[in-house]
Amino acid sequence: MPIANSFALIDKFPRFDTPGFDIDAYNETFRRSNVIINAHSSDVSYAEHWGCLSIKCAFGGTETYKISDRYYAVTDDAYFICNEGQYYSSFIAAKKTVESFTVNFTGAFVNQVTSSLYADTKLIDDPGFIGGGSCEFVETLYRHSGDLRNSIAGLRALARNFGENRGEISESYYQLLQNLMFSQQHILNEVKKVKAVKLSTQKELHKRLHYAKDYIESCYVDDVTLEKLGQISCLNSAYLLRNFKLYFGQTPYQYLINKRISVAARLLINTQIPISEVCFDTGYADVSSFCRLFKKVYGCSPESYRLSKTKKVIFST
């Protein structure tokens, strides 16, 4: 039987392609123990495999997870929640080393925490989220913020000295999962903003709209079309366009442009790579077109933007 309060650390990526690698034994580790994966790589990939409930983070770069034809790119800004029983693949393909940080929860641990919250305090008030101690989270990209951000940061720091901090890690695990559950109450309130009559329809449409949004967030460098987003979200293109704008306040194309330009602005501030490379790294093939679009959004050229931000940094120091 799984042990709710058993904890383990994996600090190196396993080699699934090694002859004789026992994937069943590997999966059993995650059924029996709450596992923290804290490993580093610039080039690693894994074929589709089973997963438990987990919070997937990456620092210093991007790690991308794939479920069916959907993509979820986790970065310093965004994490991904993956439910128990989900099958996914993943990869890191970066110019520098990326820190992969994943917090995995056993089913027994989740049942222990959710049952306690639901039965003793009634803090989780949505019967569709918890029933009999089990729960299902909204699988999407989330921005690091608030108590959850602090909980993840605290656990990440403790994991660097796992042996000595095992007791604190145990307590932090409980707090992190509780904060994760509380955060879902906000998500459920967001679900109710979707324009639909039935709650079940609101939940399904909310999920599909986020399939499209997360694809833009993760694949903005690619040729993202309305037709492709319709395929990803299993929605008619016209229906997707209308409801995406109603929910997110902008069309998919506008969302894509804002994503690309915001990434470009960050690259201009935080790196010294040429403007042409910034252009190509954000999905544009023509530098002049990129510069015109950047000026339209920020009111100045990429060069002027970089110079103004650099001067502010120098002045502030």
Plain-language structure description:
The chain contains eleven helices and ten strands. The protein is α+β, with helices and mostly antiparallel strands. The chain has three domains: 7-190, Jelly Rolls (Sandwich), CATH 2.60.120.10; 192-249; 255-316, Orthogonal Bundle (Arc Repressor Mutant, subunit A). Strands 1, 2, 3, 4, 5, 6, 7 and 10 form an eight-stranded mixed sheet that branches. α5 (199-219) packs across α6. The protein starts with 6 loop residues before the first strand and ends with a helix. The model is unreliable at 127-133 (pLDDT under 50).
Annotate the secondary structure layout.
Layout: E1 7-10, H1 23-32, E2 34-50, E3 53-59, E4 63-67, E5 70-74, E6 78-82, E7 87-105, H2 107-121, E8 130-131, E9 134-135, E10 141-143, H3 146-159, H4 166-191, H5 199-219, H6 226-233, H7 237-248, H8 252-270, H9 275-281, H10 287-298, H11 302-316
Parallel strand pairs: 1-2
Antiparallel strand pairs: 2-7, 3-6, 3-7, 4-5, 4-7, 6-10, 8-9
Task: Spell out the key features of this protein.
Arc Repressor Mutant, subunit A, 3 domains, 317 residues, single chain, Jelly Rolls, 11 helices, alpha+beta, 50% helix, 8-stranded mixed sheet
